[in-house]
Amino acid sequence: MKLWQDILGTEEVGSYVGGEVLLGQGDEVELVDPTTEVRLAAYPDGGSQAVREAVAAAEEGGRAWRAMTASQRGRILWGIGQAVRDRLDELASLESRTVGKPLRDAVAETTKVAEMFEYYAGWADKQHGEVIPVPTSHLAYTLREPYGVVAQMTPWNAPIFTAGWQIAPALAAGNSVVLKPSELTPMTSALLAKLGEEAGLPVGAVNVIAGLGPTAGQELVTHDGVEKVVFVGSPATGRRIAAAAGEQLKPCVLELGGKSANIVFDDADLARAVGGAAAAIFSGAGQSCVAGSRLLVQRGVYAEVVGRLAELAGRIRQGAPWEEETQVGPVQNARQLDQIISMVDGARERSAEVVAGGDRLDRAGYFYPPTVVAGVGNDADIAQQEVFGPVVVAIPFEDESEAIALANDTSFGLAGAVWTSSVDRAHRVARQIRAGTVWVNSYKTINVMAPFGGFGDSGFGRSSGLDGLLEYSQAKAVWVETDPEAPLAFGY
């Protein structure tokens, strides 16, 4: 926790509002080290009061932010990226400790945060309107205008990554932000806001709430000063947020869960496909919305692929995130571990075959081994519901048409992959998979330059890329009459 004190000047954990640490007054929230199950810190829930103060700070900070030229804003966004790079190792270390992911993974994700701010820095002065050749004597043109104060809620599996993922485009479009990360992982997001101010961001342009969903989250969604809501998390919570925002006609972006199909055809490079399947589901202890949690394998190579994957799963090294040899760390929290155990045990009771893993490790920490489940159909609960852990379900298929049907036989539509040596098949199948992202002969490559989002229960709207930037502004049409003698128009 030294970094928190070094940057914010206090040992006490709280919300970061208007350039200061704001201590809450609500119920105590305990932060636990997922590797040791030892208490790291605790803080009082910021609740609705913190949100009200944060929105007020965001309104003031937003006015100062929008008063700058677009070029000035771009330079500051670039500076935030550099500030993240300057504190990269420290930020990644804290992220690793609080989330439980291997340090090298935390370093990679924190580096991507710097890339996000650098990418959107380039967009800050390139959001052009258009002149429209209307069939009248008017000069008609469009402007892109920010919403104002944007509410953002991010999850515990990748807090600093998802904070940068949303904050950078919101700022590039001219908005100010009130971010509520998961109550289990608030620290790196707050530090990111402080580093932004050190890089020149006006105080209050980004505020971070340390608080619970039913108190702080509820207030944030329904606050009159919030103009748009962005949520990254579970479909169940996403539905509640969309309903609450809808009552006030607030637009939303929802980036929700997935049950992504990783399709392996019999002509694929099986060694690469098995390695890719392992990385797709076991990295990050499977705590990824795009995890390749359904492995669809053509029947002729099904036994070989499942056998190879099970053998590989058994060799993956689990351990403390700071140990160099660790490939997979613990699950982030006890509640999620219980969910994983319940779903695998439930599948086993329904005659599923657990060919690798399947039981919590007998050691301190929330460790669950890489697990391969076979012998179930695509209609099984474990094949339809998001486990959000290192658990993959292997399902055979006969031909291309069945593979596509199985891939799309889910309420989710976030991601998927195709492994094949046939170029035409790769494009053909990728087009027919109902998902926001499809990889061919790879998995889980994500970059800020490309749009990201899903269909169905995976949510709507897009993050990252130009599409993500456009989510944070609205088009305004301006009509300027150039002919003083032109007749006035009546009607619509």
Give me some keywords for this one:
492 residues; six-stranded mixed beta sheet; 20% strand
Question: Can you give a write-up of this model?
Answer:
The chain is of the alpha/beta class and 492 residues long. 41% of the residues lie in helices and 20% in strands. It has a 7-stranded mixed β-sheet, sandwiched between helices. It has a 6-stranded mixed β-sheet with strand order 9-8-7-10-11-21, with helices on both faces. A 3-stranded antiparallel β-sheet has the order 5-6-22, with no helix packed on it. Helix 4 crosses helix 5. The longest helix is centred in the N-terminal third of the chain and has 21 residues. The N and C termini lie far apart (61 Å). The model has no long low-confidence stretch (mean pLDDT 96).
| General form | globular
- End-to-end separation: 61 Å
- What quaternary form is this? single chain
Count of β-strands? 22
* Number of H/I helices: 16
Can you list the strand order of the major beta sheet? 14-15-16-13-12-18-19
Q: How confident is the prediction overall: mean pLDDT?
A: 96
Q: Which class do the helix and strand fractions yield?
A: alpha/beta
Percentage of helical residues? 40-55%
Main beta-sheet annotation: 7 strands, mixed
- Using only C-alpha atoms, the radius of gyration works out to 24 Å
How much β-strand is present in the residues?
15-25%
Low-confidence stretches: none
